[in-house]
Amino acid sequence: MILLRHGQSEFNLHFTATRRDPGIEDPGLTEHGHAQAEAAASALEGHSLRRLIVSPYTRTLQTAAPVLARRPLDVEISAEIRERFHFTCDIGSPPDRLAERFPDHDFAHLPTRWWPDETETEEAVIERANRFRAAMAARPDWRETLVVSHWAFILALTGQSLTNGSWINYDPTSPPPSALRWRP
Description:
The chain has 184 residues and is of the alpha/beta class. It has helices at residues 10-18, 31-43, 58-70, 95-101, 122-137, 151-158, and strands at 2-5, 51-54, 74-77, 145-149, 167-169.
């Protein structure tokens, strides 16, 4: 499968410059983030994909949009692949608001508040990643799946730290990473 980290968000832009939480809930992509999403979609055009699994945050849904504009895929919105809840940007939008902004997707299965109430431990993210890895390894179509997710979730799944808009091939039948390097 292919794992794609969302493009640069308004949060990423401000946090990178200041190293302080700018207080932006469920941020969208910056202009640069939209360009990264377009570049990723273009680079992935030659890959055989049938399914897209995307986190319900605005930044991931916007990152997935150029891929879906180029080809039809079966889409699954999954809160399990969300970002680690740690900053203001990790407060999501309720399903009804997401449905208004992204009417081509089904959010009805999400609870009104699908993100945690407090900071998520590294162990909790690793546990989610392990559940996802096992579920994907059991699916016969994992090789034709694109997952649009977040830095901490992809790190917990693979042990790799991806930059905004970058992607990697990943085999969910591989063992979990033996060690992770979380940012301080």
